[in-house]
Automatic annotation (TrEMBL):
This is Major facilitator superfamily domain-containing protein. It comes from Gymnopilus junonius. InterPro entries: MFS_dom, MFS_sugar_transport-like, MFS_trans_sf. Signal peptide: none annotated. GO terms for molecular function: carboxylic acid transmembrane transporter activity. The lineage of its organism: Eukaryota, Fungi, Dikarya, Basidiomycota, Agaricomycotina.
């Protein structure tokens, strides 16, 4: 596209949005726009962090809620009901990850982020106000199932929306530290949601007392309304990343060519995420129930305290993964993390009857297993899913990978109780060890290592690949920006 054409297109777009003062004389407006463009990536990264805290909180909200509901409704809150309510968030998340992943790429990052925030707020409001007709417990749990499912659509959508925006903004402003920064604003805050949810529960329980458990769980659900609202304004004001503005494909996306080029990476990110979530989600959701079962009096407060210890032990793994991802490499760090499932899963599983008699020791080893999960696949999966694909299809491929992961979480959550009942509780840990072996193999053979690679480089290779395969179309956030032929011309000059 020549300079005159580009100038005319720019003027046309500015006329449409009434930016004439910016083009023709308002230096202050130009400076303001330039400053917004400089600061926007940092705000985007920060907003991703605050947004994903609410995801982590919602993911872990049922950990203590399951214990409370079991005490309030011992007959009605059966294993099937518990699994259904817990799984509703996961099913919603699968839908949200796929749909919002497409929205990210076809409509825009900003639209996707605003949509997910709204869905989480509405879902959290409904869950807090959940009730059954005439006080029916069955009605309450069906209401919660729907509300948690709606929340899950927003929570799931946050994964591709926040993560793609954060990775592109980090690539733009801090390329060398893109990996550690991405981890700290994604997996760290997601993992922090576990201890946060338990800490909130303990505070509310101490204030209300065990005689008012109905109030306790509703207040804890209500806190989930406030967390996403903290970033809503910033998301309305944010600008889209430069990578997306220059590389978006909004029509005629060549999905067949995408699969031909990235099938190997898709097997890697989808397969590893399925295995990780198959282990980590049921262990997170039902860890409170596991701990409660080995505490002789089943005291709720003591269960929550050990649950908080478990979450605290699991958290340092995130920092270790962030430190290792550059010098050790994404793929090697992920295999090291999966090896933790193998080691600690076997230790706990094979010695379950003895180790559960020493509750603090059991919680420490359980926490170390989860800490290795955070260090490896927990840290790396989001990072490699954001790095392995080019900008035009980053949200879509990230969303599919995360959705397959959530499918693993749903399967794991569904299978968790039957495994405990028919094989014994120790087998939940032995199966985690088996998943660790499978995760190491999938990572080694299918995960590409993009450590230190500029995301713009993969964009250029992808555009060249499309051109070589005869695809013609328009690229850029505004479709009048350029075509593949223009990109070829730019590369040749």
């Amino acid at each position: 596209m020549d300079t005159n054409t580009a100038s005319k297109n720019l003027e046309k777009r500015c006329d449409e949005v009434d930016l004439e003062p910016v083009l023709y004389g308002s230096r202050s407006a130009t400076k303001t726009l330039s400053r917004m463009q400089q600061l926007s990536p940092y705000f985007t990264i920060a907003a991703a962090a605050f947004g994903l805290i609410s995801d982590g909180y919602q993911n872990n909200l049922m950990t203590m809620a399951n214990v409370v509901f079991k005490q309030l409704y011992p007959k009605q809150y059966t294993a099937d009901v518990s699994t259904r309510v817990s799984n509703s968030l996961l099913v919603g998340a699968i839908i949200g990850q796929i749909i919002v992943g497409l929205v990210c790429d076809r409509i825009g990052r900003k639209a996707a982020l605003v949509l997910t925030t709204g869905l989480i707020v509405v879902g959290a409001i409904l869950a807090t106000a959940a009730h059954g007709a005439h006080g029916s417990a069955a009605g309450l749990f069906w209401f919660l199932t729907f509300a948690r499912g709606l929340t899950g659509v927003g929570v799931g959508g946050e994964y591709p929306a926040s993560s793609t925006s954060a990775s592109e903004s980090a690539n733009e402003k801090m390329l060398k530290n893109r990996g550690p920064v991405f981890i700290m604003v994604t997996n760290f805050v997601l993992s922090f949601g576990g201890p946060l949810a338990v800490a909130v529960f303990l505070i509310v329980l101490s204030a209300a007392g065990e005689a008012h458990l109905q109030t306790v769980w509703r207040v804890c659900f209500g806190v989930g309304i406030a967390l996403p609202l903290t970033v809503f304004y910033f998301r309305l004001r944010m600008l889209t990343s430069e990578l997306y503005r220059n590389g978006a494909i909004k029509k005629r996306v060549p999905y067949w060519l995408v699969m031909k080029r990235y099938w190997r990476a898709m097997i890697g990110t989808c397969g590893a995420w399925f295995l990780y979530d198959f282990v980590t989600f049921p262990n997170g959701v039902f860890s409170g129930t596991i701990i409660s079962s080995i505490i002789h009096d089943g005291n709720i407060k003591r269960t929550a305290e050990f649950q908080l210890l478990l979450g605290a032990i699991a958290l340092p793994g995130v920092f270790v993964g962030a430190l290792l991802c550059n010098p050790f490499g994404r793929r090697n760090t992920m295999m090291l993390g999966f090896s933790g499932y193998l080691i600690f899963g076997l230790i706990i599983g094979l010695s379950y009857d003895k180790i559960t008699k020493i509750i603090p020791l059991f919680v420490i080893f359980y926490g170390l297993m989860q800490s290795f999960g955070n260090m490896g696949p927990g840290d790396m999966l989001g990072l490699v899913s954001a790095e392995s694909y080019p900008t035009p299809i980053r949200g879509t491929c990230y969303g599919i990978s995360a959705a397959i992961g959530k499918a693993g979480a749903a399967v794991g959550t569904q299978a968790f109780t039957p495994i405990q009942l028919h094989l014994g509780k120790k087998w939940t840990f032995i199966i985690a060890a088996i998943c660790g072996i499978a995760g190491i193999l999938v990572t080694y053979f299918f995960i590409p290592d993009m450590t230190g690679v500029d995301l713009a480089d993969e964009d250029k290779k992808f555009m060249q690949y499309l051109s070589d395969n005869g695809w013609t179309g328009l690229i850029g956030e505004d479709e009048t920006m350029s075509s593949v032929e223009d990109e070829d011309e730019k590369r040749s000059t």
